[in-house]
Amino acid sequence: MGIVYRAYDERLRRSLALKVLPDDIAADPRRRAQILDEARAASALTHPAITTVHEVGEDGDALFIVMELVVGRTLRELIAEGSKRIRSRASPRRSPTPLATRTRTASCTATSNLKT
Q1: Alpha-carbon span 93 to 108, nearest angstrom
Q2: What share of the chain is helix, strand, coil (3-state, %, to 5)?
Q3: Which pTM does this prediction carry?
Q4: Domain boundaries, the chain
Q5: CATH topology of domain 3-107
Q6: Which of 17, 61, 86, 102 has the most crowded Cβ, counting Cβ within 10 A?
């Protein structure tokens, strides 16, 4: 539902994922509620196969989720290879999840617009 960027937290010196609800649907209250529900659900769980949510915020009309960056292949790519390969290639610590299926490189600094 959102666009996920690879971002860098300059204060903590770490890469992270920044999921942003696109502008063209940000005005839809139902979609905004969905992304907040997704963040709440993920942040309420602790499991190796679920990304850690660090923050949810707004910058103007933009709604975003800052989360752990999980580098790897997309879930879509793994499914295309077949379920046997998913089990054999999935990391024992971290498996691909819908929250971090793919990151796009973006020239952004995560801390520049985050409100703490």
Answers
A1: 28
A2: 35, 30, 35
A3: 0.62
A4: 3-107
A5: Phosphorylase Kinase; domain 1 (3.30.200)
A6: 17
